[in-house]
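Appendix B. Worked example

We walk through a single record from start to finish. Start with the input: the chain for Ca-activated chloride channel family protein, Propioniferax innocua, length 322.
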Amino acid sequence: MGWFPTFELPGRLLWLLVIPLLVTLYIIAMRRRGRRGMRFTNTSMLAAVMRPQKQWRRHLAVALSMLSLAALTIAFAKPSAEARVPVERATVVVVIDTSQSMGATDVEPNRLDAAKTAATDFVESMPPNMNVAVVEMAGNSGIRFSADTDRAAATRVIDALKLKDGTAVGEAIALGLDALRRVPGGDGEQSEDIAPGAIVLLSDGESNSGRPALQGADLAKEAGVPVHTIAYGTQTGFVDLDGERHQVAVNKEELEQVAQTTEGKSYEAADAKQLDAVFDEIGSEVGHRTEEVEVTAQYVGWGFGFAVLAALAAISLAVRWP
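Next comes the structure step. The output line below is what the pipeline stores for this chain.
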């Protein structure tokens, strides 16, 4: 929430000018009280009759009263502030690369298993009302879990993913958009409009089948859906296929282009810890939007709290403390 609110009725803030006036009157009253006290020449008799009070308690009571008045005056002006609010029908499509290169063991136990663990934690940490869909990216890509709030079902699908041949980034993005189109509307009915959300695409290599990656990125750009890409793995990874060793260094350039085209963000993760951090950052951004919301109740609450403290401070003035 923003620190500096805007006001629907800013003219009412003129009542704040009453506060310095009251403080001035309080200071004048305290000085006059001090001068009256000087009329008593026998201060020892005065001390015996009246128990001295600590000035800080009186000052505290007045200060808390002024804070309460300030908070309630701000509430009276109907303040609004920027806040992050959940988006209705918000959906995150998690695209996981299951190509053979994801079997590289440069990330323990291997790229795919580490990715599945991180993706599972990401899905489980999402707000309960946010939908999640799962797309498998390989030569034969597909929507493995349609958008839903059932976290247990989604994680079971992620856990069941296996290595396959081929990498089709463009096709996976197109499938992610299809998953967003299948999200029911706010009334539970099927909607023709694409649901608000984002695609999170985790891969270690470039496309070698299906439509080109940038073609899929153009589709996402046209639909207004950002694609956040995660280039996962190291430059020293390798896999053994059919008795031959193949280097499978991460190709991050293509993924960066996809993210830039769709106004998403591109990330790199060389190990499981970095991948967890990336998913945490993405999770804090998707599914919410920033908008102006009225915060009158918040300032009323502060005003009430200060008023209660002021009352307690005033009561303490009448109590004989040991």
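Two observations about the output. Confidence is low (pLDDT under 50) at residues 186-190. The chain has two domains: 6-82+293-317, 88-286.
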